[in-house]
Amino acid sequence: MNIIFPPDPQANWYARTVTFINNIYNVDAVAVHALTTRWTYTVPASTNAFVLSALATIMRATAGDLGAYARATISVNNLPAAALIVARAGLGAGATGEKDNSAGSAGLFMLAADTLVATTNDPSLVGTAHYLLTSKIAEFAS
Amino acid sequence: MRARVRLQHSADAGWHIDLPTYTMIPDSFLPLIPGKIHKNGVTATTNPADPALNAMTVEVECPDNYAHPVTGKIDNPRIRAIYNGNPKWDRPDYIPPD
Questions:
Q1: Is residue B40 in a domain?
Q2: pTM for this prediction
């Protein structure tokens, strides 16, 4: 009996090449700060991308001032349109341990030049917060 | 690739890096100025036009193919090629942060 091994895999018309891109900003005890863009992802030319997951989490590590607020936001900017919020977590008061999280509820298709942006903002006068802003993206040729 | 770069400020993006794709490295803001700049950001009470912020830098992780093969610095022609046709990034006058 002859055993014939198949040849090495060959490129086929249905061959697909996907690059996975992970973004994360995961930091404890971030002091009060102005609006800051923690990470961005821009879809390259001749490429499409699919956002597989997006998660924004925020928790007060040490108390903020009365009436304080802090936010963690992931949004997508489609040229030339304005931003669409994908996930946003926010705190309205300043107590330690207060937390909020928000996950993108559906897959998001992005075309070349679209941008996924993660920002944090804590304009309180005192206090710190923990932030987790993460996403997983599948990028493929268009 | 990892690089230490200057920040910019705008109303919609706040403090950000003028790059298409990047991730800020935690605890890497410099210089540290009490009341103005801490290791993860700028206080909201600080005026973005404050001259003390001109030298502010942060460490970022960005795609390896942004780097010039010889100098290792973030390279305008490479970014223009990757984002060919993008009105924001495919511009001869775009100067990547250093």
A1: yes
A2: 0.90
